[in-house]
Amino acid sequence: MNSIKVKKPSKVKGIVTFLLIVVIIWASALNTDVSFQKLWDGLPNMGTLLNEMFPPDWSYFKSITEPMLATIRMAVLGTTFGGIVAIPIALLSSSNVVRIPVIYQIARFIMNLIRTIPELLLAALFVPIFGIGEIPGILAISVFSFGIIAKLFYEAIETIDPGPLEAMTAVGANKIQWIFFGVIPQVIAHYASFFLYSFEINIRAAAILGYVGAGGIGLFLNNALGFFQYDRVLSIIIYTFIVVVIVDAISNKIREKLL
Amino acid sequence: MSQNQIKKPIGKRIRNWAIVLIVIAIYVWAFAGAPSIALKDSAIQALKAIFHGFLHPDWDYIYDPAGEDLLRTLLETLAIAVLGTFISAILCVPFAFWAARNMTKHRTLSSLGKIVLSCIRVFPELIMALLFIKSVGLGPFAGILALGFHSIGMLGKLFGESIENTEFTAREALIASGANKLQVLWFAIIPEIMPAFMSYTLYRFEISVRSATILGIVGAGGIGAPLIFALNGHSWDRVGIILYGIIIMVTIIDLISAAIRKRLV
């Protein structure tokens, strides 16, 4: 890129990559019928919508406080259950804890598989089994946060300092002691940080789970949209926004201290 | 937490206890309010039906020359993720420079940029999709705009942080040799943050693929629409094949993206 008289590496690779990206984007645009004309034409509609949204229905805030609290509750419980189950799987997935490749590869495979399933689909699957309400939401979030926490946690475990572990092995600690006094103290702060991070994500996820009948604020959003009560939609959006901002701020503060 | 010989200052101890009490209070509240787990009367039946459907997925749905099939909708999902990521990767650049602390002398200016980015970030993409559907109509375009807009929040933050972490040496050398601001930007800062840029974009792409799979639930294109129809109709064999499709697609994307990212950093 700069004009120093050093022999530059071949540009072919860069050009090929660039062309490849262009082709992928072009094909994607073709596939999805993207046009800026449509966006431009649609902008007035957006204006109309915003017009209908304002002013928000302030009196509605009171009636959505209960579902909002239910949403937070779903996130708290779901993150907790998911976080607890994540610990053994994360330990099993770490190549420096479990030295047998077959075991940690299988554990990782399960973990990765679970992470690919969208939480909304999970919730929709739990609804016919547990009925409409918070329980499917909590379970969906548990599974979902299990995936996030287990992955981040096992990556943290794999980077720990082997020194204390070797020392413990040398003095004859068994595997359980080894994990409790050698591994856990080194990663506990990371774990707490990942737990909070997943909680932040879950608050947002929980807010939309009601869409498929899994309790919380999403149900109210769905209803308000269905009845074209856009002032209420805006109230819900503002409320969600406030809760998410507060949770993010607190969690960020704590996470900064942890690491 | 450990048994230190030196006692921690009293203020700190009070604070730690306060945190513990707050956490306990939150859990008491959460468990007290949670409804008890009760299986629906038809739960066993539903479970059986779901398992049966998952074990006997609707293979015919994979490719259907006449209409909407799995491959086509998955491809559309992928296209939504590609374009959404592309839009945000471009749009987030000015935001990133705005939010980076070392790009301006005014601290408040960069703080403001950070606040704007977190505001964009907290807005769930599903709600954004609903808004865009209103303006551009049902279909993948709304999904692309929603993803593109939402991703600015996260990408802008990560890019901003990598700009903040740039080394000063290259920059100072250029300034010393009389480069102007634009030249400094182009020759010192851009080359330094480019690998991080690409890596974060790919990482965001992985997340976007996941998000794109559910955007269709509100009508923003991709695999989500047939998925929600199948779920509402309790056609579990259809849900099964779509689920397998999503799992395979996301796994392949993750593997490819991770392989590329490994080379970048």
Structure, described:
Chain A: The chain crosses the membrane at residues 12-30, 70-92, 113-132, 178-197, 203-221, 233-251. Chain A: Belongs to the binding-protein-dependent transport system permease family. Chain A: InterPro entries: MetI-like, MetI-like_sf, PhnE/PtxC. Chain A: Keywords: Cell membrane, Membrane, Transmembrane, Transmembrane helix, Transport. Chain A: This is Phosphonate ABC transporter, permease protein PhnE. The complex is a heterodimer of chains A (259) and B (265). Chain A has 259 residues and is mainly α. Chain A has helices at 12-32, 36-53, 60-63, 65-93, 101-115, 119-130, 134-158, 162-170, 175-209, 217-226, 230-258. Chain A has 11 helices and no strands. The relative contact order of chain A is 0.13. Chain B has helices spanning 10-33, 43-55, 70-99, 107-122, 125-136, 140-164, 168-176, 181-215, 224-232, 236-264. With 265 residues, chain B is mostly helical. The chains are: A mainly alpha (259), B mainly alpha (265). The interface between A and B is large, with 56 and 64 residues.
Chains forming the largest contact = A-B, 56 and 64 residues
User: How much of the sequence of chain A is in beta strands?
Assistant: under 5%
Number of helices of chain B: 10
Task: Detail the poorly predicted runs of chain B.
Answer: none
Fraction of residues of chain A in helices?
Answer: over 70%
Uncertain stretches of 5 or more adjacent residues of chain A: none
Cα-atom radius of gyration of chain A: 24 Å
Calculate the terminal CA-CA distance of chain B, rounded to whole Å.
Answer: 37 Å
Helix content bin of chain B? over 70%
State the order of secondary-structure elements of chain A, H for helix, E for strand.
HHHHHHHHHHH
Give the overall pLDDT of chain B as a whole number. 84
Give me the secondary-structure category of chain B. mainly alpha
Whole-number average pLDDT of chain A?
85
What coarse outline of chain B follows from CA principal-axis ratios? globular
Given helix and strand content, the structural type of chain A is mainly alpha
The biggest beta sheet of chain B is recorded as:
none
